[in-house]
């Protein structure tokens, strides 16, 4: 029985993980979960999975949760809160596997706790890897943790690589390119001039995937693919020159690896995150994910296009940041989190997200970040810079 901690259990990835676990309850036990503030959802999870620990945002939400729990669970479940609580359930000696599914930079500290405790880490929280890159990968090696990608594209690539692929082994493995596929999001075919006037609701209405708000906006701006470009660079140890982005609106091919002998290996499936989650949980075995089998006779025709820089400037900004190095990618991630939140709050326009990101990256790409504390300080500085740009109308 594998003991599992799910960070961000109340979110979209968290819910899909719980669904896969409930189909395989002979193999996985939910040891601990975290949720930020959705007390009602945490009560449902507590009743269905009886974890030993639940971590909430703060003391107040922990008290609310305690009162809302049925009395038998009040005595069996220990409640914790805040960063300390997250670090505790990520590194607990009884835990084998940690699903990192908190959104954004808030996931950085608990994912490092899991790595330092040598856990099997299933990584959905791409922002933590984008923020800390080499430090993240070095920590995985140093502490003997294992890292399995949950992001569908990276999980697909993981499945298409040689089974003994080692970090940075691109040339020896005959890899020419990783081909990251992208749906192009809801605005792929919209008039470019109209992008300045789209609403948060339109940006969150993804054609193929049902996801949290932040990643939905990132998908609409293709910043998500930019973050994934940087994520791929670090997960597989390849250079930016070995990674390409291909728009494939049907989202059936989840990514591909192109080899020097002309072979291309792809992973296909219905767009349902339970597939990569189940793969990551069971690797190297396979388990039932509850996902409908792909029916080739009812598929749309497959199409492919190159991303347009004018429509998706954030993608190109991210690729450029990836080439520039750690400070640039940390800056970009921080600026983007602030800008996306401001767009969701209707403080800025959709197209201003790029303007804020570019403003911050231009100013904060040259720092040397050699320790986690420096990454965290740089993240904070860049958030302040983005907030200033928005509030003082510098953009
Ligand atoms: P979501 O918004 O649905 O859920 C986010 C989770 O994080 C929730 O449980 C929330 O309570 C928690 N959370 C939010 N802010 C927090 C904070 N400050 N401290 C602690 N916990 C906090 O997001 P999601 O769509 O499930 O995405 C989660 C992560 O997985 C993101 O990094 C996203 O990029 C990545 N991802 C998601 C998908 C998808 O299909 N949803 C696909 C690939 C990767
Ligand atoms: Mg993805």
UniProtKB/TrEMBL annotation:
Coiled-coil regions, chain positions: none
Pfam families: DXP_redisom_C, DXP_reductoisom, DXPR_C
Keywords: Isoprene biosynthesis, Magnesium, Manganese, Metal-binding, NADP, Oxidoreductase
Name of the protein: 1-deoxy-D-xylulose 5-phosphate reductoisomerase
Molecular function via GO: 1-deoxy-D-xylulose-5-phosphate reductoisomerase activity
Organismal lineage: Bacteria, Pseudomonadati, Pseudomonadota, Gammaproteobacteria, Alteromonadales
Annotated pathway: Isoprenoid biosynthesis; isopentenyl diphosphate biosynthesis via DXP pathway; isopentenyl diphosphate from 1-deoxy-D-xylulose 5-phosphate: step 1/6
DXP reductoisomerase C-terminal domain span: 268-384
EC number: 1.1.1.267
Domain 1-deoxy-D-xylulose 5-phosphate reductoisomerase N-terminal: from-to ranges: 4-133
